[in-house]
Amino acid sequence: MASLVYFRKVAESRDSIEYAFGPDATEKPRRLTMDTKSRRSRPVDGEINHAFLKASRKINAMYDETAQWPDRGMSFS
């Protein structure tokens, strides 16, 4: 079974970035906050599930590649 998650940056401060994410490119109903120093994320709604982990890992992977927090992206497996 395929798994797909889209994400986009919705807010940024000095210490964190908030991303909206979800299974559809146009509708991203959930949010996660990424601590830019520790590179740890947490779901705003408190629910840690596959979609959250997939978005968080892809955001960190893109940061590893470019040394910049991505504005948007997607992960497919």
TrEMBL record:
This is Uncharacterized protein. It comes from Streptomyces xantholiticus. The lineage of its organism: Bacteria, Bacillati, Actinomycetota, Actinomycetes, Kitasatosporales.
